[in-house]
């Protein structure tokens, strides 16, 4: 395997960031109606309405930002995983392409030999 | 709508209406009396002060009634409190999702980290605690907003109670039989006996009463504003909801490095 990070734990990470993004999406669906609260309440608005709205908008940005960020992290990790898996697959194919002829199923023969591309062609056991 | 709020609001309107009607009736009755009996020496001295006081009461009552009519923000904030709790619950779920407990995000335990030494991985590991701090901040912010919404609604309700108390006290002190005695007749020899007695009562009660009710309203307003400010900038809340220094950037920009290109 040539993965920089093991896919098992990478997948766990992806799943967790995605779950966090999903929860933040739900939070966003709750907060958006609050952010839409535009009515000005006359006298109250002059006194405390404006700071309350400012605070609401600030927290709203945090919620929106959280959803965006967690989605981005999950997506980036997933892309990295896919890329690593693709590279690993290519590597396996490359190894298979230089594998010497032998009996069917004798796939272990490539390891520790001069045909093992991971060792730069060096002979002998690792 | 909130039953408790409706009751407080109704009580407030009722107390204001009594004072308003009294003030309006005094002015009206005096005008009517002057119209019927014509001018007599001493009229202005005897009744105009009362009429002026009645006018002041009407103005105060009108101002206060406007504020009570504007008080629909109180039940709205009670609704906001519930909504903020809903947001808080979802944020908490997100918090749980990226908690260290038994997760792949535990950078201290998993061997995966040991095998992932590229610069991108370093940035990823650095991002995890930043995002945890951000989600913690968001959670505390939503909690503060829920508390602030509840507190502001209570402050507003208390304001209505204060206004109600002020007008009830005014109404208690008002000479209820005053305008029933106006029709006793015109002043004799420039002295209106009935008005004279009431004149003295006015000089004793009127200005202090006006000053008192004005002060009570101002005091209630100031108290409400201060309480509201405390709710919005309570101890520690300024860090959670930095009203004056609200970062106009997203969480990603504010608390984390740009996500590394992988």
Question: What do these coordinates show?
Answer:
The complex is a heterodimer of chains A (126) and B (262). Chain A is mostly helical and 126 residues long. Chain A contains two helices and no strands. Chain B is mostly helical and 262 residues long. Chain B has one domain. Chain B is 74% helix and 0% strand. Residues 109-113, 179-191 and 235-262 of chain B have low confidence and may be disordered. Chains A and B meet through helix 1 and helix 2 of A and helix 2, helix 3, helix 4, helix 5 and helix 6 of B.
Write the layout of secondary structure elements.
The complex is a heterodimer of chains A (126) and B (262).
Chain A: H1 7-35, H2 42-97
Helix pairs in contact in A: 1-2
Chain B: H1 3-37, H2 43-69, H3 73-97, H4 111-114, H5 119-173, H6 193-232, H7 237-240, H8 251-255
Helix pairs in contact in B: 1-2, 1-5, 2-6, 3-5, 5-6
The sequence of SSEs of chain A as H and E is: HH
The two chains with the largest interface, and their residue counts, are: A-B, 56 and 70 residues
Q: How much helix is in the residues of chain A?
A: 55-70%
Secondary structure: number of strands of chain B: 0
Structural category of chain A:
mainly alpha
Give the overall shape of chain B.
rod-shaped
The major sheet of chain B is characterized as: none
- Termini separation of chain B (Å)? 53 Å
Gyration radius from CA atoms of chain B, angstroms? 31 Å
Contiguous helical run count of chain A: 2
Shape of chain A: rod-shaped
Estimated share of beta-strand residues of chain B: under 5%
- The helix-and-strand class of chain B reads mainly alpha
Overall number of domains of chain B: 1
- N-to-C order of helices and strands of chain B: HHHHHHHH
